[in-house]
Amino acid sequence: MKGIHRIGVMTAGGDCPGLNAVIRAVAKTALGRHNLEVMGIEDGFLGLVQNRMRPLTNESVSNILTLGGTILGTNNKVSPRKYMSGTNGSAEPRDVTDRCLEHIAHNHLDALVVIGGDGSMSVASDFVRLGINCIGVPKTIDNDLWGTDVTFGFATAVSIATEALDRVHTTAASHHRVMIVEVMGRNAGWIALHSGIASGSDVILIPEIPFDTNIICEYVVNRSKRGKRFSIICISEGACPKGGQQVVSRIDPTSTDPTRLGGIGQKVADDIEAATGIETRTVKLGHVQRGGCPVAADRVLATEFGDKAVDLLDAGERSRLVVMKDGVVTHIPLEDAEGKQRLIPLDDPVLRAARNVGTCFGD
Ligand code: F6P
User: In degrees, to the nearest 5, what angle opens at C-alpha 143 toward C-alphas 31 and 216?
Assistant: First the structure.
């Protein structure tokens, strides 16, 4: 491969099912097909700052396709431009980009494959501007990365959330309760929309459509009057009432993206119970959605994405993001995805189908 002998691969940002499948695909394609050396950088950009990396071999990436998490470790707090060495956030952020560049040179890395979300792609774009070759591979359960129709990890998270919703369905019916399941997704409602539809949730609440609690209560009461004495609500952690605000569960001062959402499900439960008298319970699904082995679709997508990343380097590309567009794995300029989120458009066909089958969105 012209000018490329050794590459570094890292997983950065929050973990998601399928990361190991990408690492495996990158390493196996690079080692077997192109005779490259592959270094696994540990804990995302933190490993680059601290010069922690290890060679990946066919042996070390064998048997990891179905494994959840990432064998390299990850980190969703480190940005080399604003590096905080303390754990409590009290230290002043420092720019340690030069240190990363030194470690890239010292380890003779001719290119980086960065498997990450929007924050990681911004860092990778920054590196490209400083002369480093970077190929990005989009990951996140949230499916909110701009430029790609889908990210790996999303299908698994949807399947886990759907199973949880299916399970609360039976207990809600037995106890004649409203059951609310709060799912992840940050400012995008993709997980809620897809798992809500797959589970036949009666109400789906997403950040893209601010809700009115009165409308939800009316819907739940009407169902009760028609003999359906229970309701299932799937709510995204980023959903918020009309004119209201998102519920923040914690602020992490050590993180470059400090706000963690969570808790809106309980708030809606309290409001529904107070207004209707119907017993209402909440399940906050949390990190269960990010854990465990990837579903088959994510394993396939991750393998295609990893293979494409190496393919792009072979084709002489030095700053691209692997994406899925209209069913085809292709690529766009890395910087195109920088600082952008892909939210659900209001004319999304899946959203339209849900409305047509009578799902309430609280609007
Ligand atoms: O971006 C993935 C995600 O799981 C979001 O859905 C969620 O809001 C966030 O990460 C949680 O972050 P942490 O793992 O830092 O709590």
Answer: 160
| Overall size of the chain counted in residues | 363
The pLDDT, as a whole number, for residue 284 is 98
Residue among 77, 120, 141, 285 whose CB has most ligand 1 atoms within 8 A, to mutate: 141
114: nearest Cα among 329, 305, 341, 326:
305
Please say if the pLDDT value at position 9 is more than 60.
yes
Please give the full DSSP string across 284-317, using - where no structure is assigned: E-GGGGG-SPPPHHHHHHHHHHHHHHHHHHHTT-
260, 285, 341, 342: residue to mutate for ligand 1 pocket, most atoms within 8 A of CB: 260
Kindly state the average pLDDT of the residues 67-89: 86
Q: Is the CB of 77 under 6 A from ligand 1?
A: no
Task: Please indicate whether residue 140, judged by its CB atom, sits closer than 6 Å to ligand 1.
Answer: yes
Q: Is any ligand 1 atom within 6 A of the Cβ of residue 290?
A: yes
> DSSP letter string over 193-257?
HHHHHHTT-SEEE-TTS-B-HHHHHHHHHHHHHTT---EEEEEETT--BTT--PPEEEE-TTSSS
For the annotated catalytic residues, the residue numbers are: 142
Alpha helices in 35-106 (DSSP H): 45-49, 97-106
Q: Cα–Cα distance between 314 and 318 in angstroms, integer?
A: 10
- The whole-angstrom separation of Cα 285 and Cα 184 is 8
Is the confidence at residue 78, as pLDDT, over 60? yes
**Ligand 1 mean position, distance from CA 248 (Å):** 12
Residue 330 has a CB neighbour count (10 Å cut-off) of 14
Task: DSSP letter for 345, please.
Answer: P
CATH classification of 158-290, choosing from 3.40.50.460, 3.40.50.11190, 3.30.360.10, 3.40.190.10? 3.40.50.460
CATH class as words, domain 6-152+294-337: alpha beta
Q: pTM score, two decimals?
A: 0.96
Instruction: Tell me the pLDDT band of 228, cut-offs 50, 70 and 90.
Output: very high
| All structural domains of the chain with their residue ranges | 6-152+294-337, 158-290
